Predict the structure.
Amino acid sequence: MTPITEVEGRRVALSNLEKVLHPATGFTKGELLHYYATTADVLLPHLRDRPVSFLRYPDGPDGQVFFTKNVPPGTPEWVTTAEVPRSEGPGPARMVLVQDLPSLMWAANLVTEFHTHQWVVQEPAMADRLVFDLDPGAPATVVQACEVALWLRERLAADGIDAYAKTSGSKGLHLLAGIRPAPSDQVAEYAKELAMEAEKAMPRLVLHRMTRSLRPGKVFVDWSQNAARKTTATPYTLRARATPTVSAPVTWEEVEACGDVGQLTFQAGDIAPRVQDYGDVLAPLLDPEQAGPLP
């Protein structure tokens, strides 16, 4: 029988707590749920009002991994859902909004990465965030991604836009910026222009196209995640990797000092002390007053 836990007045089924999800470290589903519960204060503001896509890995990263955009079967009636425009096919899609702790714990029980759009449900396809996914191709690593991030930070600052960084939770780095709402296609075009400028400035290091044969030793600046239909790993989400790595916000001082992959690799147990030390490094993204204008 699946145990039922009450979370802020809602009955949430939390199952298979002893199941090992990350064999390399013995990290269990119970630990995953504990991580999300204790990180909720900084995670929820980045999820709120943003339709969520789930990357589910119920048997761990070595088992079946699948992407879910539509409301999963069995979703409780008290979980908020909303219709959003569908990029393909007739009519709108219905997606989950993780608005509070009960819905976060329900979703976490599905064993999931959280991925969100760069827009809120009230204004679909009007982006209020700009994102670059800096993806190094071996032998390049996050160290080289940091070099590119620093260049992009200065370039964005020249246009009056403040950028912030987080690890991807895999091998790269994500650069985020709050912007005044603008059509997603315009934001994507601006991001593409900057990616091309970065490639021109650092041709031996940067690539703005996804061409696989060109990727080794370079950092692919993926600007396309600004498209309205695309999503990016939400800040603080766990990732489906061999160990319970997190897409963790990092300070610019850490980016500047990075000389080794291990310096910017964070697991679930690292996050509470970091939040205690730094607060939410990405908090400025949540303040409309700090959003920069798209040129």
Summary: The two ends are 57 Å apart (CA to CA). The first strand starts at residue 4 and ends at 7.
